[in-house]
């Protein structure tokens, strides 16, 4: 799904400074996939905020980064923003079979087990992630 620059679905308003907030963790994605996506969005005239500083896992995001997220019409991919501030959220799958995500098999099953251990005192968070990945939310 792509939007035409200036279309009503991405028109400027007082609330949206950026059309898209783009942030991915991981060196390979940041230097390959994310760069290509960012350049394609930019060439299309889509105002995109790209987080250039890699946020280490488990660290809090800065107030400036949180502001950029809230000022973006679309996030790729932060699911909480869909519910809390009404953003459109696009799920992108890079080098993975989307059925592994939805069915939570393969590497996604392993990652969720790690998260269940890491967030054992916040089980509702992992339950919510599972529902989102299955397409229930």
TrEMBL record:
Residues 16-137 form the TIR domain. The keyword Hydrolase applies. Keywords: Hydrolase, NAD. It comes from the Eukaryota. SMART domains: TIR. It holds the Pfam family TIR. GO terms for biological process: signal transduction. GO terms for molecular function: NAD+ nucleosidase activity, cyclic ADP-ribose generating. The keyword NAD applies. InterPro entries: TIR_dom (IPR000157), Toll_tir_struct_dom_sf (IPR035897). It catalyses: NAD(+) + H2O = ADP-D-ribose + nicotinamide + H(+). Its EC number is 3.2.2.6. It is an enzyme of class 3 (hydrolase). PANTHER family: TIR DOMAIN-CONTAINING PROTEIN, TMV RESISTANCE PROTEIN N-LIKE. This is ADP-ribosyl cyclase/cyclic ADP-ribose hydrolase. It comes from Dovyalis caffra. The lineage of its organism: Eukaryota, Viridiplantae, Streptophyta, Embryophyta, Tracheophyta.
